[in-house]
Amino acid sequence: MGRAMRLNKFGSGLISVLALAASIGMADAKSDIIVAMQLEPPHLDPTGAAAGAIDSVLYSNVFEGLTRFGPDGSVNPGLAESWTISEDGKTYTFKLHEGVTFHDGSDMTAEDVKFSLDRARADDSANAQKALFAGIENVSVVDPQTVVVTLKEANSSFLFNLAWGDAVIVAPETVADIKTNPVGTGAFKFSDWVQGDRIDLERNPDYWGTPAKLDNVTFKFISDPTAAFAAVMAEDVNAFVGFPAPENLPQFEADPRFQVLVGSTEGETILAMNNKLPPLDNVKVREAIAHAIDRQAIIDGAMFGYGTPIGTHFAPHNPDYVDLTGSSQHDPELSKKLLAEAGFPDGFETTLKLPPPSYARRGGEIIASQLRAIGIETEITNLEWAQWLEQVFRGKDYGLTIVSHTEPMDIGIYARPDYYFQYGTPEFQKLFAAITSENDPEKRSALLKEAQEMIAADYVNAYLFQLAFPTVADARIKGLWKNQPTQATDLTAVSWEE
Amino acid sequence: MKLLLHNRSMLPGVILTIVFAGAAIVSLVWVPYDITILNIADRMKTPSLIHPFGTDQFGRDILSMIMVGARTSIAVALVAVGIGMLAGVPLGLAAAARRGSLPDEIIMRTNDLVFAFPSLLIAVMITAVFGASALNAIIAIGIFNIPVFARLTRGAALTLWSREYIMAARVAGKGPARISVEHILPNVTNLLIVQGTIQFSLGILAEAGLSYVGLGAQPPTASWGRMLADSQTMISLAPHLALFPGLAILLTVLGLNLLGDGLRDLLDPKLRRART
Fold first, then answer.
1. Three-state SS at B92
2. Smallest CA–CA distance from A374 into chain B, residue
3. Å from B207 to nearest chain A CA?
4. With bands split at pLDDT 50, 70 and 90, how would you rate the model's confidence at B1?
5. Which of A64, A166, B125, B265 could form a disulfide bond with A129, CB atoms 3.0-4.6 angstroms apart?
6. Which residue among B38, B214, B232 sits closest to A301, beta carbon to beta carbon?
C-alpha cells in the first residue's frame, strides 16, 4: 500500500513535469508554423513559370503586386495605395504606398514597378501569363510614388490581372538570383530552401503594412498521400493545404485535434480532348464522350463526394457562371447514336494519359469504364508531372487527359489555338477579344456567358467538376484561407489561438 | 503418392497452389462480377453473402478482382520464369561444357554483373526506360531470372561432366552439345523444377512490388500489388480493401515455397536415400 502511494506521488510528479515541458513546447510553437503541401516549386520566380506551387509558397507572403486577391477572390489594393482611371478607361494612375522596402533594405519605388511590368511584357520575357500584360502600351514614372500605365485599349480586367502572382513587383538589383533567392516586399522574408524537403520563411520586421503574427514559417513538401496522412496524424505538420486524399477527411473531421476546411477553387477539372487528333476532331465524337460521362459517379468515386459538377470551363461561385451541365447530361444511348452518326458504330481506341493527382488517377479509371460502355477503348498511361508537361502539355501527344485548371478566370485559354487541347477557333478568339475590351459590366457578363455556352456547344472538352480545396489544420490555427481564388497560401494573417 | 502424404510441407503447398492456379484458370471463363464495370453506388461494401470479399473503392467485387489478379500474377511470373529458364539453362550448359574457356568466363561474369544489382532495381530501371506495363514487368523479372538458372545449371552440370557415363559418351564420339542435351539436361531437371517453383513465387512477389509502385500492370488490368497501393489511404476506412489482396499474395507465395520445399525433398536423391 505504502509503496503504491509512493509510486503514485512519483507518477503525479512526473505528469506535472511532462505538463510543464508540454506547455514550454506549446509556447514555442505559438509563433512558428509548419505548413505542408503536395508539390514543391521548381524554382522561386513567380514571374517566370506556370507552376502553381511557386505562388502557393510565395504569393502575398514574399512577393506582392500593385493589387492583391483577398480570401474571397476580391481585388484589393496591394502596393498601390489607390488609383484613378481615366474617362476612356485607358490610363491608370497608381499611387504607391510610402515607406515600402524590399527585403534587402532598398526602397520600392515607381522605378521598380516600371521595371517589373516592362520585364513581364518584354519580347524575351519568360512570364507564363504574358497575355495579362499584352494590353499595356506604356508604363511611365511620374515621381517615386506615382506610376502611370497606359493601355492600348480599355481593359475591364486590368486590376484583376495585376493581382496575379505573375504580376508581382521585383527589384532590378536582385532579379538575377530570383530563382534561388527571392527578394520581395512581403510580410515574410525568404530564408532557406532545402530542395526536396522544405522552404523556410521568416518574419520581415520592416514590413510596411500590418506585420505578420508568425515568426517562422516552414513549407514542407509531401507528395505521397499516405505519407501526408501520417504526417498530419502524427502532428509533424501543423497544416496541410490541398490535402491529397479526400477519403481521409471524415476521419480528421471526427478528431477534435484538427479542423477541416473544404473550400472552393478556381480549378475546373476537365477531361481534355486533343481537338486536332482524329477522331476527336469530330464534334460529334466529342459530344458522344461528353454524354458518356457520369459526373456524379466521378465526384463520388474519385473525390469521395467533394466537388461541384460543371458543364463549362467556368467557376460555379463566379456570378457570371451559367450551369450548362444539362447540355452534356449522362446519356450513354445518345452517345452510341452520336458515335454511329460520326462513323464509329463500334467505337474506337484512344489514349488516356493521367498526371499524378488522385482526381486524375481515380477519375481516369472511372472514365475509362464509362467510355468502354459506349465502345471507346482507352489505353491508360500514368505519368509523372514532368512527363505530363513534356508529352501532353507541350508535345500534344495524347488523345484524352484529365487535369484541373487552377488559374482564375482562365477561359481565355480557349482562344489559343496552340494550347494543348488545340481549340482556338476564330469565332472564340473574336468573342474573347470583345470580352477583354468590354468595360460595361453588364455587357461583359453577357459576353462571358456567351463564351461559356460556345465552348460547351462545341464540346471542346468534357467538363467534370470544380475541384474542392481541402485544408486540414491544427484546430488552434486561425486565419487560414478556406477558398483558393488564386493559388496561394497567404499566411500574413495566420496566428495560433491563445 | 505415399511419399507426398509423408511430406508435411507438400500437402498445404499443393493445396494453396491449386486454389490460386484454379482461381486464375476459372477467371478466364467466369468471374462472379465483371470487373470492368464500376458501380460507384456500391463502393466499399464490407464482406457479405453477395460480395464475399466486399467491394473496392469503385464498387468492384474484390473476389473477382483477386481472381483476375491471380491470372495477372501467374501469367507474369510464369512467363518471367520461362524467359529465365529458356535463356539461363542453355547458357549454363554451354558454360559447363566449355569449362574454363573464354565463353564460360564471359557468360559467368555477365551473370555476376546482373547479380550485382538488386533485382527490383533492374526492374525499376527497365520500366522507367520503356514505360510501365505488364509486358515490361515480365521482361524485367525475366532478366534477373536468367543468371539464377544459368548458375544453377552450370554448377550441377560441372559435377556431372566428371561422371563415368559422360566419359563413356565422349569415348563413343558424342560432341559436347549432344552430351549436354542427352545426358546432362535430364539429370539437372529435378533441380530446375525446384528452383523454378521458388523463382515463380519470387516472380509473383516482384510483380506485386512493381505494381505497388505503379510500374507493373496498368489499369484496368487487375493486379494484387496495385489493389494494395490503391487501398493504402483507405486502410482506416475499409481495411478489407487491403486485407484480401495482401492475403492473396501471402498465401500464394507461401504455397509455392512449401511446394518447392516439398518437391526438393521428393526429387533430391540424396535426401530420399537418407529417409529410407
1. helix
2. B37
3. 17
4. low
5. A166
6. B38
Residues in chain A: 498
Cα-based distances in Å from A262 to A105, A302, B120: 39, 16, 40
Contact list in A for residue B37 (CB cut-off 8 A) is 369, 373
Q: How many CB atoms neighbour CB B266 within 10 A?
A: 17
Give every CB contact of residue A244 below 8 A, 6+ residues apart in sequence: A38, A225, A228, A357, A358
Domain residue spans in chain B? 74-250
d(CA B255, CA B272) in angstroms, rounded, equals 22
User: What fold characterizes domain B74-250?
Assistant: MetI-like fold (1.10.3720)
Q: Among A251, A372, A373, whose Cβ lies nearest the Cβ of B236?
A: A251
* DSSP letters spanning A245-295: -GGGHHHHHT-TTEEEEEEEEEEEEEEEE-TTSTTTTSHHHHHHHHHH--H
CB contact under 8 A, B58 and A301: yes
d(CA B121, CA B209): 11
**Exposed, middle or buried by CB within 10 Å (0-12, 13-18, 19+), for A205?**
exposed
Q: Is A101 helix (H, G, I), strand (E, B) or coil?
A: strand
Computed over every residue of chain A, the mean pLDDT equals 88
Residue in the structure block whose three cell numbers are 527585403: A103
pLDDT tier at A336 (50, 70, 90 boundaries)?
very high
Q: CA-to-CA distance for A474 and A23, rounded, in angstroms?
A: 16
CA separation for the pair B105, B100 (Å, rounded)? 7
What is the C-alpha separation between A328 and B52, in angstroms, rounded? 37
pTM over the 0.90 mark: no
pLDDT tens string A2-57: 444 444 444 444 444 444 444 444 444 478 999 999 989 989 999 887 778 899 99
pLDDT band at B122 (very low <50, low <70, confident <90, very high): confident
- Residue A248 has its nearest CB partner, among B58, B218, B233, at B233
